[in-house]
Amino acid sequence: MRSGRTHHQVQSRNGLQCHKRTFSRQSQNKQAFVQYLGDILKKDRCQVLHPEGDPDTLIVNTAVTCAVNVTTVVIEEDTELLVLLLHHADLRSRPISLKSVLKTKKHKVIDILSMKTHLGPLICNFLPFLHAINGCDTTSRLFGVAKGLPLKRPKLMQISRQLQRHSVQKEKLQQISLHWVRKHWFLSTEDQRVTHWTCCVTTILGAVASSITTVQVRSLPPTSAAAKYHSLRVYLQLQDWIDKICDMKPEMWGWHLYSGRLDPCTTDLPPAPELLLKMIRCNCKSDCRPKRCPCRKHGLECSLACAECKGISCLNSPPTEPIAECDV
């Protein structure tokens, strides 16, 4: 296993011969350590499962299966595990508990079946959608929207039921996402003839007119393209949580493969009109660091209009795809 330029090995007797932060920077080191730890546990006759996808889904499915016959305790501090346990737990099974591992929260044990009985099946079925669309490990959080806010809007539960279906067309998902944005940012706009762009412009102008300081871009409502890709990722995550056999390709649902890893697709439109992009540029002498670069302050990548870096030689340069080799 490699960490930086140094070669490290995990040995049961000698231990790790480097700092754990240095070791964990490389994903292959962490994966090899997990595999090594699993082999040690198997020798002690422990059952070990290695997930191919989302580990939380495997943990919850295993816990629910075990709870059919024995009392089960999941030891972890993770909101997703709590949400998925409440969604998947069977009230007819043996007790299931979620126990915290944090030292500051000693003896914190959540009785999943009691909590599910108290919340009711309607809320528990709604929780995965609520958690995914308001930000989880694979989806971004909507700025200024509290986790519990959608619970106060019953119409949004209808959206949840639609997204939990296994087959939903992308055009339908886009309509659902725009409806979701309307319900959060444009509650006073009930006229369906008013376009999403008109609502955004009205909101931006109102924010600029009423603010005495600079309006933060992150506080503005998402564009229709951003909402579309967000809804695709939410739908993919929901299917992965709910459906035990999910064979959907992430590249078709709001993700793109870059340098061997999946990155979220943010939009398929330019961040601003071309005329405005030409007006925003920087004159940074080096690196274009966040505190000094005007482009970064406006949430833009450096471009050819920038005086020094030209959008290719700084920390804020757009990523470039590696050039594939070819025969000439």
From TrEMBL:
Top-rank taxon: Eukaryota
Organism: Elysia marginata
Alphabetized PANTHER family for the sequence: CXC DOMAIN-CONTAINING PROTEIN-RELATED (PTHR46704), TELOMERE LENGTH REGULATION PROTEIN TEL2 HOMOLOG (PTHR46704:SF1)
Protein name listed in UniProt: Tesmin/TSO1-like CXC domain-containing protein
